[in-house]
């Protein structure tokens, strides 16, 4: 009888990777508690399984295995005592729940930990005043310093997600001055936002966007205005290819300069519309005016040969709007020019108000979303259907219209439901217009279900959002099982002894990932 342990190493590795989810250079995933549990259990089976599962276990450092400051400090100790563990890390997400209740002070660090991290800081060879500042920050358990110390020992990190207001940029800048190659392998930066600190200046993160391998950036609740635009973002100097902004404010000049600074742009996401009433408050910076769809089109024209994804939605108030007010809003909204000149553009997500009655898209388009549609779409839809049947959009397969009230888009001119028909009948009628084509056309309402999870969670938008993935959710692992596996990763005790130790200590509150055995010297 054959056993799974007898399978070839290559096949086992593929199976384990399937459990851990495919490797990716984005954080568009929902790494559940079950995934981590499965990897922990695999590590317990035998040495061979541990050797294959441990790299996958350490690939993601996120809410599954860092749910408080103590866990973060334990992991930081682990990667300094066993640097090979840090080399496995590719994704680091520091969630907003790391701090406890307002005004709550963490317990003091043990003296051994203070000594360890003081030595670590001194080995960085920072200027004396900066060194003393960092040591004091270690003593007070400043989150920013521990995030920097952790990521300094993860040379293969690809994705870093932190929250403005919880993690500050100054320690990063200080370390870059002494160690210019720090974070040189970073592929994606995500700056979320503590709800207490909206409207931060995106330009303070200028150094991140100048990293040589940074291809994707996401900012939440920030501002970028011309008076504070960083000089280091000069034309043609940034490697970033995917730019994403959620609930941000950017003026037209800043958008143009930022896109000019990028060597190549493949994707632009600017999501300012909230599907929830009284959702995220919009940021307005003095007298600066937010860019509009025509500004985005003009800014992106130099990148027409590479742009694959365009998602632009603007803040609109009031959220609930009557037909006349919405008609006036549409009439005053600058329209998106023809996208014919973008030969590789595959995804277009834009509000109804930004489109002319007969919008033009490139032949490469595959997915079209028309959002925030509060008026009859019949005329526009009729023109698009004719273009589809003429063969102008041979690759278009997904076409979605989103509305607060689905009865509005299906009405006749004058906002009248056809006599004897229900809104459902009208939707089926409009779907029938695409008969004989491969277009899947849908009209759907926004999902107005209040988001579950942490109140500070940024991901309160409707439906699936491929550009702006959410914080990994779900409860963390039981502390004892987590402690057992991290200890085993630190050294290699016998599994029977380890299990006996776990049983004996099952009531312990010690969740350290560091063993009491002798460790390698700090490097």
From TrEMBL:
Residue ranges, compositional bias (Low complexity): 478-487
Compositionally biased residues, Acidic residues: 456-468, 506-523
Annotated stretches, region: Disordered: 446-487, 500-523
Ranges where the F-box domain occurs: 4-61
Protein name, entry field: F-box domain-containing protein
Organism field: Aspergillus mulundensis
